[in-house]
């Protein structure tokens, strides 16, 4: 979250003391929201992406996300397909749709665990939530790029190692998180599989009090003193959330999900604290979405009552990392950038490739 509209007020020294006490009480009961105000997506501001590393040092690391996925990603026949069988289940599952303080819209899972298996991951991973990144225009919105190409929106499915307690523990644990990314592509037709999700957006349209409205108990306050008697008052509304009707996650994913090809690299969270503990898998298959449906996402508001758009981090340097893929090369030219030709299936572990040993260690079984 970032700061709301300032309201300039004059107060006496005595009332200043009283208000300062109220400020600390309010911040004390809303630590999550207060921490979220220390960063935003606004370029050129102190809390913007270029300055995240000041408070969150990992954001300045060498293995950050998102990246531009290169055309020369190395084909690795040892990478396995994912097992998405749990994605079809809704038994004992609860879904909560949240406008996350103007940073994104998120669907949180609770109840019966949804487990992701396979994919050459080092463990089973529990689905925690999924969220979206989108732009004000179709020309930009995704966090990752594919060979320099932008997409209007990107979906992230966030999982943590199933044996770890929760995301907070997992995010600081090596290989603690596994995130699956899906690009959206504009279609002339509505994607009816998104209807159940989108019909709830009216309930989370804004996280901010309406203009002129102020509620002390629903806000976080900060005072900045100007001289001896002036300060600025900011209102930070909490997340806006609602329970939503159950639907299988499988419904909104590509049809050929059981044979999903993907790109794989090791990276970070794309938001602070930017811990470099994420195994990324970016699907080669895209999800269709209409312009009308994209505009439903764009109709959401952030805590400043401005359109919630452009919630993506700038591309980060690949540095010495290697991107590998399950997708077989389709041309002779492409094979020159991949390991030696093989006819083995993805489940054949006997093949040895010329991929960097560190990549094999991290991503192959």
TrEMBL record:
Which keywords are on file for this protein? Lyase, Metal-binding, Zinc
Task: Name the catalysed reactions.
Answer: hydrogencarbonate + H(+) = CO2 + H2O
Domain called Alpha-carbonic anhydrase: residue spans:
37-327
Could you tell me the EC number(s) of this protein?
4.2.1.1
Q: Where is the signal peptide?
A: none
Enzyme class comes to lyase
Q: Which GO terms describe its molecular function?
A: carbonate dehydratase activity; zinc ion binding
Q: GO cellular-component terms in the record? A: plasma membrane
Cofactor(s) the record lists: Zn(2+)
Annotated region (Disordered) at 329-351
Bias (Low complexity) ranges = 329-343
CDD domains tied to this protein:
alpha_CA
Under SMART domains, the record lists: Carb_anhydrase
Q: What does this protein do?
A: Reversible hydration of carbon dioxide.
| Homology family | Belongs to the alpha-carbonic anhydrase family.
* The protein's name in its UniProt record: Carbonic anhydrase
């Amino acid at each position: 979250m970032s700061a709301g509209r300032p309201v300039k007020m004059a107060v006496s020294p005595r009332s200043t003391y009283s208000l300062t006490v109220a400020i600390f009480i309010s911040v004390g009961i809303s630590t999550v929201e207060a921490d979220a105000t220390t960063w935003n997506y606004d370029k050129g501001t102190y809390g913007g992406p270029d300055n995240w590393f000041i408070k969150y040092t990992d954001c300045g690391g060498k293995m950050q996300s998102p990246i531009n996925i290169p055309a020369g990603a190395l084909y690795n026949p040892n990478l396995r397909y994912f097992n998405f069988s749990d994605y079809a289940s809704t038994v004992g599952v609860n879904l909560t749709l949240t406008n996350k303080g103007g940073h994104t819209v998120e669907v949180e899972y609770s109840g019966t665990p949804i487990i992701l298996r396979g994919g050459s991951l080092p463990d089973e991973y529990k689905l925690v939530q999924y969220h979206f990144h989108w732009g004000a225009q179709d020309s930009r919105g995704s966090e990752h790029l594919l060979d320099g190409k932008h997409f209007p929106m990107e979906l992230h499915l966030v999982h943590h190692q199933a044996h770890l307690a929760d995301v907070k523990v997992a995010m600081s644990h090596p290989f603690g998180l596994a995130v699956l990314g899906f690009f959206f592509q504009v279609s002339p037709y509505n994607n009816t599989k998104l209807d159940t999700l989108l019909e709830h957006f009216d309930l989370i349209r804004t996280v901010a009090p309406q203009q002129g409205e102020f509620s002390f108990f629903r806000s976080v306050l900060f005072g900045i003193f100007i001289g001896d008697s002036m300060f600025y008052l900011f209102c930070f509304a909490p997340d806006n959330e609602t329970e939503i009707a159950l639907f299988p996650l499988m419904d909104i994913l590509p049809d050929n999900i059981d044979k999903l090809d993907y790109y794989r690299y090791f990276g970070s969270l794309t938001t602070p604290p930017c811990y470099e503990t994420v195994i990324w898998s970016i699907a080669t298959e895209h999800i269709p979405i209409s312009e009308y449906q994209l505009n439903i996402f764009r109709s959401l508001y952030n805590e400043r009552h401005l359109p919630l758009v452009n919630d993506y981090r700038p591309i980060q340097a690949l540095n010495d990392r290697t991107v590998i893929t399950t997708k077989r090369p389709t041309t002779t030219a492409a094979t020159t950038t991949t390991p030696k030709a093989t006819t083995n299936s993805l489940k054949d572990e006997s093949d040895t490739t010329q991929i960097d040993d560190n990549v094999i260690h991290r991503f192959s079984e």
